[in-house]
Design goal:
The two termini are 31 Å apart. A 6-stranded mixed β-sheet has the order 6-7-8-3-9-10, sandwiched between helices. The radius of gyration is 17 Å and the shape is globular. By secondary structure, the protein is α/β, with parallel strands linked by helices. Helix 3 runs parallel beside helix 5. Helix content is 32%, strand content 26%. It has one domain: 3-Layer(aba) Sandwich (Rossmann fold), CATH 3.40.50.300. The structure holds adenosine-5'-triphosphate.
């Protein structure tokens, strides 16, 4: 479960990206974060994986207090939170297999377990045949599927995606959304910042709308609500 109480974030340059945010997200929910450009969506999700720290308020994620979490403990947090970005952020010189295995090698899993888990997630994202390819040899959609596989290989309870379909064409985006739905159906919380009206209005989920750093709407099976 994720709770934010009276959370504000002011960046060092004085910009207040979020103010007075109160939210509760239960385990297993699927939540879209929507809003105009610059509204504070990325800041909202970055707070959850401690890419940024709140200036005020409290953020508790599965009993961990984000404000008190020491910098050296952040890598442990990331094992329970998978993060997916618009630009994939794969390691260009490593194969698909190695990109995914890397997340397990750093926590010293056995080679046998690593192989089993990597092949399982590659199967889930439909990329078993590309295990030996490097990212440059893949399409954008395939690269995003690798980054999803990497994010879930540790079986995190929460997956956070910041504009995961922002660089993809519509057809490819639907395929990516099916993977997120599958992950969510297995009990993982999915939190997704998106600008895609089509996706939000078609695959109906909870919608949290952010404008000027404030939460202005929070609806189950909500609409995108903006004219793009
Ligand atoms: N690292 C930073 N330092 C200073 N200001 C920042 C930083 N990151 C974001 N901001 C500012 O905070 C505000 C909210 O930005 P944020 O990236 O959270 O919005 P967003 O809703 O994700 O926008 P977009 O849809 O364009 O990605 C903006 O005014 C932005 O310029």
């Amino acid at each position: 479960m994720i709770t934010m109480k009276d959370v504000s974030k002011t960046y060092p340059n004085g910009v207040t990206a979020l103010s007075g945010v109160n939210i509760r997200i239960e385990q297993g929910e699927f939540v879209y974060i929507v809003g105009p450009s610059g509204a504070g969506k990325s800041t909202f999700v970055r707070l959850m994986y401690r890419e940024v720290k709140a200036s005020k308020g409290s953020i508790i994620i599965n009993n961990t207090d984000m404000q008190r979490l020491k910098e050296r403990k952040v890598p442990f947090l990331r094992r329970n939170i998978g993060v997916i970005f618009q630009d994939f952020k794969l390691l260009p010189k490593l194969s698909v297999y190695e990109n995914i295995a890397f997340a397990l090698e750093v926590i010293e899993e056995s080679p046998r377990m690593i192989r089993k888990r990597v092949m399982e997630v590659l199967e889930l994202v439909g990329l078993k045949s590309k295990a030996r390819s490097i990212p440059d040899e893949l399409s954008g959609g395939e690269q995003q599927r690798v980054s999803i596989a990497r994010a879930i290989v540790n079986h995190p309870k929460i997956v956070i995606a910041d504009e995961p379909t922002g660089n993809l064409d519509p057809d490819t985006s639907w395929g990516i959304m099916r993977i997120f739905e599958e992950i969510n159906s297995r009990g993982t919380t999915v939190i997704m910042a998106t600008h895609s009206k089509e996706i939000v209005n078609t695959i109906k989920k909870r919608v949290i709308a952010v404008e000027d750093g404030l939460i202005v709407r929070d609806e189950q099976r909500g609409e995108y609500g903006y004219e793009i």
